[in-house]
Amino acid sequence: MEKEVQIKHIRDYVFTLFQADESGHDYFHMERVARISRKIAEVEQANVFLCEAAAWLHDVGDKKLFHNPNEAIEEMNTFLCDISLNKIQINEINHIISGISFSKGIAVPDTLEGRIVQDADRLDAIGAIGIARTFAFGGANQQLMYHPNSKSTSIQHFYDKLLTLKDLMHTESAREMAKERHQYMESFLKQFFQEW
Ligand code: ADP
Ligand code: NI
């Protein structure tokens, strides 16, 4: 099966898994992470197919999103086998997606492809989209947008995580893309507190 066709099948598979998500991990998050990963992979001369495939699938088996993460991963592997990915490719995809989530730890992925998908996932957590996802997450989790005396608010999440991400990018391409998104968040926060 051609790689292009395999990616199309992966996209359809991801659509069935994430179409109903309202926690900030919807299908379009996967689409953006896949597109950014592809773009960075081309510039960084990484394995573009692996980056794109792993990016589409990067939230499969996330403990926050799946009642049975191991089963989700097993089903994904069966699916990848069905669309003719070989054992090595399937192992590489598993390796990438098990190592990228911010919430799963801060270890730096040990392959270029893993670092690229992590950069792309982090880019989608900052900038205008990042701001929107943060308040969508807050709403879905009964969290206040802001409270002057509380540390568990969506605004606090900017200081705990989002403003740190630009310095955690691994690739030059991602660092470059992060600059504008970071500045946008800073001006958002400035305006937010002015209005508050
Ligand atoms: P990952 O996709 O790496 O697992 P998360 O699940 O932690 O990342 O985050 C998914 C989205 O939800 C991101 O946009 C993130 O900023 C947002 N988010 C995560 N935790 C919080 C929180 N406590 N408050 C507001 N937004 C959050
Ligand atoms: Ni993600």
UniProtKB/TrEMBL annotation:
Residues 22-135 form the HD/PDEase domain. It comes from the Bacteria. SMART domains: HDc (SM00471). Pfam families: HD. Gene3D superfamilies: 1.20.58.1910, HD-domain/PDEase-like (1.10.472.50). InterPro entries: HD/PDEase_dom, HD_domain. This is HD domain-containing protein.
